[in-house]
Task: structure prediction
Amino acid sequence: MAITGTRGRIEMDIVENVNHLQGNGEARMNASKGPFKSARIRVYPMFALPYDVEVPTGDGGHGGADPILLEQLFSPTPPADAFNRAASHIDGAASILVGIASNESMRTGKMVVVDDLFVLPDKTADERDK
Result:
């Protein structure tokens, strides 16, 4: 995955532990069951030297993200979100808009500015109004 923005470019390359064949040769797809086989983030800042960013992983599927997500969603007493990772409805809409922009860019071969599709409210302003 690569994202180019106004301050540079970021690239992430992940190889997951996915089993494609059962013992009898039948094809199957399973979600990642453990840490990534490999993961790399490379940042290419505008007018600066590129650098790598450490990719922390934990136990469980998708590099350790699955157990954390499931605990946040289904635990009657989820732990505090120390890193403010919980997504809001605005984050969900932003995610959808990035996908729409990506598909439109692939279809047309042109750059698509997400705000040209739909301007979302500022998440911090929305949280202050609660």
